[in-house]
Structure formats: structure tokens, C-alpha cells
């Protein structure tokens, strides 16, 4: 290929697609609207306390025994991992005015999730290190994709300083949520109606969710025989897990049951305050003084969510490959976890979708 393959999005799918193209000697460029790589992967340290570790505000774990692509890639990249801590009793919070109940979780050790020692961001960084830095262009927003008079793909992009660039492309890999692409990228000629409909019907994974991580000097709940796992019908967090790194501080993370509209109305400060109060109720006085509570509301992230994502998460059945693109066939290829039917919403799905996209463009198996 004389022209590069243009990859839109520097999340896991985009970076993996780039690494596979590089292995085959195929030129590419990655255009990313954010000022960082990773997409919905976000591993954050506590300000001024990097010694406590990095904490995942996006995806957190994978299941090595079932998810063979990511297990193989982790081994190839020699990334250190550890098994999720679930030892001890779980807490069940049923009533606002009553203390939580302890319960024993019957669990198969072999089915525990696996976490990255440096957070999932370490996977992004390892992939990016395999790619020439100049091939990844941050703060570069794709505005439109068109087919010229010779039916060749052209990508129109805009940088943060307002300068525009027109990029001829051998093909385009849309490695971002289909719904986001449908809302923010103009296609000329228009995409077939069945494709646009499918794109907008695929809910963006994590787009309606928020996540909080409370960071402590140590995982004190383990000393009381608790796993850190909580199931709550009271909230505001409805699921809580031990998020402690392999070495460093202790941490608990939770997903919120509050709808995104309610979170927006309350504001971040109030939502975090409610989460802190819930942790004290669950885990006692030692939960009163976290080093920090890290918070990310993906529904308020314009590079992740669109208006339709504000409602309850539904329509799981829409996940999977998009229909044939007609005149756009092989010029426009979709990737991203939403486009993989079997592992949608997982890191594994993002990787498999990247492999499928590269195979479709090159006509050859990437492995």
C-alpha cells in the first residue's frame, strides 16, 4: 500500500490494529481527538502520591482462562499482572437504616479476574512503544471521511490549533464507538441507512457509567476478614470491589447505581461525598480518611458519550460486526469492543475487533 491506513482512535483497538499493520510493513497513521492514548482505558495515580500506585477508572481486569487474545498479548509484551483479591467475606447492603450483612462468597480461584500491576494503561503504553511516536497524532479530530472521484478514501481532520489536514488513505479503521462516529463524523457519500442505524443502536460501553476509587494507605478491610466486595441495593455505589494494587496502598472502587442525569444534577462534589459516606457505613471509621477519592463520570466525557447514552444501558443484542458497507466496502472498517459479538465490553473484544479489521483490509490473517 502506498497510502497509509488511517486509524481513527488511539484506544486499545486502534493501537492493536496499528501494531498488527506494522508487523506486516503496512504504513498507517493514528488520529486521536483526546490529548492522550487509551480511550476508555484510564489509569490514574493519586496526585503527589505516585507511590500508592495507579488506579483504573475504566476497565480493570480480564479473564486469562477464557480470553486468549489478551492473555497471549500480555505474555508477548511481558507485562506484570496479579490475580484480583476476593479473599474474605462480602458485604450485602439491603437497607439504608441497617448495617450491612456479611456473607461468604463461594468462588473458584481459577475464575478470578487478572489485573495489570501498572493499571490497564500499562498495556496501552506497551503497545504505543512498539509504534513510531510520529505515527500517533493526538488532539487531532476527524471531521469527515469521503470517497473522491476515484472512490479513494480521504480523511479530513482538524488539529487543536484549528489547522486542517486532508489525508488520502488506503483504508480507514474507525476504532472508536460506532455511536460516537455516527454523531461526529460526516460521511460523503452518506453511509447506507442500515449501517447508520446499526451504528446509532449500539450503546457505547461505559458511556452511561461513573466510577469512583477511594485510595487508602493500606487495605485495612482485609484485617477484618473482608474481601472488599459489596453488593448494595441502597447506593449510591451498587457494586464495590477491592482495587488495591499488587504493591502500594489499598483501594476500593465502585460503580454507581445513580442514573447519569441524577449524577449531573448533583454534581461531582456531592456524588463523591455520598460515596465517601457509604464507605464509612460499610467499612467503619478507618474508611473516614482516604488519601483521595478518584472519580470519572464517563457520561460527561464528550469523547465517549452522546445524548442517547444518558439513558439506562440496554440493547446488548446490537453488539457485533456492522453490516456490509456497500460502496464503502474495504475502504471503511469498524473496530472497537462494541463490534465484537462474543466479548463486547471487554478488552478481549477490543483486541479481536482490531484483528478482524486488519484481516479485512489486508485480506490476510494477522497471525
UniProtKB/TrEMBL annotation:
Gene3D superfamilies: FAD/NAD(P)-binding domain
Highest taxon listed in the record's lineage: Bacteria
GO MF entries: oxidoreductase activity
Coiled coil: none
Residue ranges constituting the Amine oxidase domain according to the UniProt record: 105-357
Family as reported in the entry's similarity comment: Belongs to the flavin monoamine oxidase family.
UniProt protein name: FAD-dependent oxidoreductase
Organism: Alkalicoccus halolimnae
Record lineage: Bacteria, Bacillati, Bacillota, Bacilli, Bacillales
